[in-house]
What we know:
31% of the residues lie in helices and 30% in strands. It is built from ten helices and 13 strands. Strand 10 and strand 11 form a beta hairpin.
Amino acid sequence: MPIRLITYRKGNVLPALPGRRIEHSNELFHVYEQTAGYHPHLIVAYQDKRPVAKLLSVVRKSTRIFPPSIIKRCEIYGYGEYFDENLNKETLFGEMLDYLTQNIIQQSFLIEFRNLEEPLFGYKHFRRNHYFSINWIRVYNSLHNRVPEKQLEPARKRQINRAVCRGATTKILETEEELDSFLKMLKKSYSSKIRKHFPDINFFRQLATRYPEKETSRIFLVEYKGKIIGGSFCIYSDGNAYLWFSGGMRKTYPWLYPGVMAVWTALTHAYSNGYQHFEFMDAGLPFKKIGYRDFILGFGGKQVSTRRWFRFRWKWLNRLSCWLYK
């Protein structure tokens, strides 16, 4: 029986769909829809009237001066979600990839697939659609067999102990006032990072407040004398925790290590609540020394090699990139 593909662009027409991954969920679709500069597209594969797979992408523009906001990019986290073990997952993905590329490439300067757990999955389908890949690094902590305290490097453990002794406290966000203070602090932290994209604050507000009955996300705060000096933002999907954003006032309060405490609070919460892995969302390129990766490795995580797939709209630029990264 042939597969039928439908793209949904409005949340009010989304059907009820199965699934366990927030990256391709109706919940995240609605959050994207309510975030300025974000335009979600959910591709659903049907066999007859039965959904067998789905793939959520979002076209966004930058909210900063550099890169310019006139440039739009499409981002997809993972390969999608599949509901029928009798159907070939990679074949289904190939059909959805063909469909997505044809429909999105005119709206986006760049299409990017990131956070891929299986580096070789879909290889021939990406190449057929003229994508090129760049090696990337994933960093994650396994929480099902070792407690976080035993994974810490000695220097990181000393920093945490010093911060606690000097009066730093941590908690889960509770009020709207705390949310406003956290977002103001985090946005200031990201404003100096040219590469890092910081979404409109409504993105965080929607995820933090829209689905209180589900643990789709959590915001953790670091405080000192009643002031928020650090924090982190996690999402939860299929038994795993993902650190999406974190930051702290490390120049103002260097002796309290607010960035360290922000990550540590999220990591210990994931362990206490039975999550299997804790992954850092953007560990960077493998051939480039990155301070952030050195920082997160101090929590005892493992480095594994993966890749990201890209496709430019400009054909000459895409051909050049395919030649450079073949």
